[in-house]
Write a structure and sequence with these properties.
single chain, about 325 residues, mainly alpha, about 55% helix, elongated
């Protein structure tokens, strides 16, 4: 009798990865820099920036720890610990690791994953909203007219009063976006159509910069609505630096950034009794689509009421 010995291997549909030797960190950096340069036409500018920032950071780490070591899980864990020792926040280091991981998959797809033990998620961050009292203190600490800080103070207040208009959209608003007592625009991030009631305080701010803004824009922030990414990035950097100075001058704890106006409007709207659906629509969010299927669009007169409600909360805190 002839006996047959069958050795069966089942992969259950999973492709077996070929195990090749892990590259050294110097080999990875060389290949990853080339990859970052070649993908610039197929990914967003912000992604390329993230790639290059992460590569520069990792290169400094490698110079301090030697370029001959392998790209192993221990290497990446050490890198993340190194970032922490340098005061880099956990979510920021996670962003660096995700960028490096993406480049690694592009350049060495057949090797094991050295990022398996590193943190690449997102931790819940502290809320960036301030109280009505703190907002009132910020508003009351108004810089002198005609100074650069006054512009940024006005932009922050305009963003807050305008249902939390994001800086990316606010900086590109033009007089064409104004229709009667409403500002109508589409969010660059989600393409959602947003209607913002134009309060008297907002009209005063617009009037203050009439004639000084290029290309019909409401504010002299950008040279044009379609300016390049680097120009926009430089503007928001100046804005956040100015907001830091303004928050220090007002004696506020923590640091005021461009997002604080948006988060504060949403927080105060919520505590003032504005419905979650109204807030979501005002902010141009798309994460409650199911709810929006069952609810009609809120009329502009109701949005005007909500806008006044939030503005009055701050006015009350100022003792008006």
């Amino acid at each position: 009798m002839v006996m047959f010995d069958f050795s069966l291997s089942f992969s259950f549909g999973r492709k077996q990865k070929a195990h090749t030797e892990m590259p050294t960190v110097s080999q990875f950096l060389l290949s990853a820099n080339d990859a970052a340069a070649t993908v610039s036409g197929s990914v967003s500018k912000s992604t390329v920036t993230n790639y290059n920032t992460a590569l520069r950071s990792f290169a400094v780490f490698c110079r301090e720890h030697g370029n001959d070591s392998r790209m192993t899980a221990a290497t990446m864990t050490s890198y993340q610990q190194w970032l922490s020792q340098r005061g880099i926040r956990r979510n920021t280091s996670s962003c660096y690791l995700r960028s490096l991981r993406s480049l690694y998959k592009r350049t060495f797809p057949e090797t094991d994953n050295p990022f398996a033990g590193a943190f690449t998620g997102n931790e819940r961050t502290r809320k960036r909203a301030v109280s009505a009292e703190m907002m009132a203190r910020f508003i009351a600490n108004t810089p002198h007219a005609g100074t650069p800080l006054r512009l940024w103070h006005d932009v922050f207040l305009f963003s807050f009063l305008g249902l939390g208009i994001p800086f990316a959209d606010l900086a590109r608003l033009s007089h064409d976006n104004i229709s009667g007592d409403t500002i109508v625009y589409r969010r660059r991030k989600t393409s959602q159509r947003i209607s913002v009631p134009l309060l008297p305080e907002m009209r005063e701010i617009i009037q203050r910069y009439r004639g000084s803004s290029p290309c019909g824009l409401l504010f002299p922030i950008l040279p044009s609505a379609d300016c390049g990414w680097q120009t926009y990035h430089n503007s928001i950097t100046r804005y956040n630096r100015a907001l830091h100075r303004l928050s220090v001058a007002a004696g506020l704890p923590g640091n005021i950034t461009s997002y604080v106006a948006r988060h504060t409007w949403a927080s105060l709207a919520n505590t003032s009794g504005v419905s979650l659906h109204h807030i979501s629509q005002a902010l141009g969010h798309t994460n409650i689509k199911t709810t929006e299927i069952y609810l009609a669009r809120i009329p502009d007169d109701e949005m005007m009421r909500d806008s006044i409600t939030v503005a009055n909360a701050v006015a009350d805190a100022m003792g008006r």
